């Protein structure tokens, strides 16, 4: 029996392995796994997104989100934009998925610096590409060389950093690609916003929500500090880096991630196998003929 409960999905018929995964490497850790998150709790009705006297039309996803209840109080998802902007519909997501023969989704890696997020995400990207899936990794450091180079590390800038990446990941997933994001993303509310942007279906249900898989790369702070491949923890301890997550800024660990992986207790190959088995078990890799035993 797979460590996730039967209510989440039926056990997969096989484990998918690419050459990077050693046979027999799968390590099941039932006490480290939790069922997928569900979103109801706080009403969204008191956060209007339309503007009186404006011709702005919300995207269908946001129209549905107005009636969605979320675990955390979130910022409004529709910015104040000129009233002459209109949402232009395109192919539905199921149509695009059928034509591309794969389902788009986002795999959101979160965890402390030096937890192994980027290493595992890179290996997973390679694994998925080897299997024939379109996949692309968005890295927390890399995007700050371009898209987010105007942002710092204050709480406000961190929130904007995650908001932008959530939107970009959603675009990749909407195109039927598998988006992998490896960001510390320390605040639960920001991750909840990223999830809400993905999972909310359109009002007419023509476009179902985009699967959002939160993968918590969980290691003790002491282990992360011992690794410290970039020397950042030492600098933070010496006061050379301000607002560093885990030292002078908080990290709010996920309470109900789809997957929790202790990277100090498994190999990269085992982590990749665990994630791919979960995706296959959920039926997220089952569109077309790409998933094969290799």
Largest sheet: 5 strands, parallel
Query: Which of globular, elongated, flat, extended, rod-shaped describes the shape?
Result: globular
Report the span from N to C terminus. Answer: 22 Å
Helical region count?
8
Structural class by helix and strand composition:
alpha/beta
What is the number of beta strands? 5
SSE order in H/E notation? HHEHEHEHEHHEH
Widest sheet: strand ordering: 2-3-1-4-5
Rg is: 19 Å
How much strand? 5-15%
- Average pLDDT figure: 74
Helix content: 25-40%
Given as residue ranges, the uncertain stretches (5+ residues, pLDDT < 50) are 1-78
Summary tags:
294 residues; alpha/beta; 5-stranded parallel beta sheet; 5 strands; globular; disordered N terminus
Characterise this structure.
The protein is of the alpha/beta class and 294 residues long. Helices cover 30% and strands 9% of the residues. The chain has 8 helices and 5 strands. Strands 2-3-1-4-5 form a 5-stranded parallel beta sheet, with helices on both faces. Strand 2, helix 4 and strand 3 form a beta-alpha-beta unit. Helix 3 crosses helix 8 (268-281). The longest helix is centred in the middle third of the chain and has 20 residues, at 155-174. The two termini are 22 Å apart. Residues 1-78 have low confidence and may be disordered.
